[in-house]
Specification:
The protein is about 35% helix and about 10% strand. By secondary structure, the chain is α/β, with parallel strands linked by helices. Strands 1-3-2-4-6-5-10-11-9-7-8 form an eleven-stranded mixed beta sheet, with helices on both faces. The structure holds glutamine. Glutamine binds near residues 153, 173, 174 and 177.
């Protein structure tokens, strides 16, 4: 247990210094998985233990490589990122037997840095959801309270990192899917600026929103992973060539007194759980007592964000998911003719929420409705981006809640999709605007004893500064006790 409780940074250092063997670390993770997994259901596919131990033994024989910062460190990967030779299901029946022939760029980078992939983690089907209840492989439970959801869609990854089954994980965030589960499970979760991390091998949901990012137990660990996964990739046409990316070197140099924090007035007030509000208020007081400046800002188009996001993301999903037709890969229903094969494959292969979104997405793109829905939503997207640009003239970063409530009970929102969509009110705007955001735990709620998170939003491509700020705020918040079970 002592081994798995360590931060990624600590274990990586110990492995480099040969103070601990890769075999011991891998073994410790498997023991923790064996102990907690029956309660959590965090993994869809777990690598074979004997095989990984043999691999670990070989690594111990050759010894550490100082060019590999993650040498020997076991990590988890959300099951939406392709892994060569390891089943990648997107938590869907339609891909339940899909073994990709190649690694996602993020996965290749982690492997090149020496990481060991423990397995593929549970999620909402095709990343559509906020609770990991939309998984064809059953829901994941929240390790802080097994009757509650871990958040979603990267809920398996979050539950797994919080319960110390692995040292960190890579999730994806289209409208909050890294930050909200990080918040519900008491972790740090980074959604990078759009274009900073390659989407090659990330099975597309909303291509103009999707970004991969880390889920970790410390800001330093997130910085370490960002350093490895961020950067130009010619295989992704939206990948950016950003110079001088360095997340770890200057992580600790910023001072709170140099930062102006903006509080959007539209984000605080009606609908926000008093416990969440109280924790954020407490942190703001701490910031001010350390000479951080806090000002009120406005994001006036916030009330249109949910509608715009769900129109655009469903439109993109309906087009992206057209490729799952039973012809080239994945599940195929047994039928007598081609049309029936398409129909039955998609009817039986996709879950209810995915079908709902494909239908709504097709509708908003159809002739006669395109202007009223898709085009209008695209215009709102621009207005939201303008809101942020204006707000950032008055502050360096924005502080916001991650979710209106702490982790909610399993089943609470499953029969009412609209209620589930409303849970994303604080996370989706920055995906619409392409901005970077981070979720940071700021303690356990006094009444619920559940983790409460805070979100920091930075201007476009200021991801390094975002982590510097998060590092400072992490010092003002109590460290949570992992694993909670
Ligand atoms: N809950 C949001 C949705 O269902 C966000 C999901 C995500 O970021 N992948 O679209």
């Amino acid at each position: 247990m002592e081994i798995v409780k360590k931060n990624l940074r600590e274990i990586a250092e110990q492995l480099q210094k040969k103070e601990i063997k890769v075999q011991e670390v891998v073994q410790a993770c498997f023991e923790q998985i064996e102990r907690t997994e029956p309660k959590l259901n965090a993994f869809i596919t777990l690598q074979d233990q004997e095989e990984l131990l043999t691999q670990a033994k070989a690594l111990d024989t050759t010894g550490p490589d100082s060019n590999q910062p993650l040498w020997g460190v076991p990590l988890g990967i959300k099951d939406v990122l392709t892994t060569q030779g390891i089943k990648t299901t997107c938590a869907s029946k339609i891909l339940s037997n899909f073994i990709p022939p190649y690694d996602a760029e993020v996965v290749s980078r982690l492997k090149r840095a020496g990481a060991i992939i423990l397995g593929k983690q549970n999620m909402d089907e095709f990343a559509m959801g906020s609770s990991t209840e939309n998984s064809a492989f059953g829901p994941t439970k929240n390790p802080w309270d097994l009757r509650r959801v871990p958040g979603g869609s990267s809920g398996g990854s979050a539950a797994s990192v919080a319960s110390c089954q692995c040292f960190a994980a890579i999730g994806t965030d289209t409208g909050g899917s890294i930050r909200q589960p990080a918040c519900f499970c008491g972790l740090i979760g980074v959604k990078p600026s759009y274009g900073l991390v390659s989407r090659y091998g990330l099975i597309a949901y909303g291509s103009s929103f999707d970004q991969a990012g880390p889920l970790t137990r410390s800001v330093e660990d997130s910085a370490l992973l960002m350093e490895i996964i961020a950067g130009f990739d010619p295989k992704d046409s939206t990948s950016l060539e950003v110079k001088d990316l360095n997340f770890t070197q200057n992580l600790k140099t910023l001072e709170l007194s140099q930062i102006t924090f903006g509080l959007p007035k539209e984000y605080f007030g009606e609908g926000l759980d008093p416990e969440v509000q109280a924790k954020i208020d407490q942190l703001i007081q701490n910031i001010e007592s350390q000479n951080g400046k806090v000002v009120e800002v406005s994001l006036p188009h916030t009330e249109y964000a949910i509608a715009a996001y769900y129109i655009l993301v469903m439109a993109e999903a309906s087009s992206n998911l057209a490729r799952f037709d039973g012809v080239r890969y994945g599940f195929r229903a047994k039928c007598k003719d081609l049309t029936e094969m398409y129909e039955q494959t998609r009817t039986q292969g996709f879950g209810q929420e995915v079908q709902r979104r494909i239908m709504l997405g097709t509708y908003v793109l159809s002739a006669g409705y395109y202007d009223a829905y898709y085009k209008k939503a695209a215009q709102v997207r621009r207005l939201l981006r303008n809101d942020f640009e204006k707000a950032f003239q008055e502050c360096d970063c924005i502080l916001a809640p991650v979710s209106p409530t702490p982790a909610f009970p399993l089943g609470q929102h499953t029969s009412d999709p609209l209620q589930m969509y409303l849970m994303d009110v604080y996370t989706i705007s920055l995906n619409l605007a392409g901005l970077p955001g981070i979720a940071l735990p700021c303690g356990l709620g006094e009444q619920t004893n559940l983790p409460i998170g805070l979100q920091i939003i930075a201007p476009y491509l200021e991801d390094q500064k975002l982590l510097q700020i998060a590092y400072q705020l992490e010092k003002l918040t109590p460290r949570l006790n992992y694993p909670p079970l």
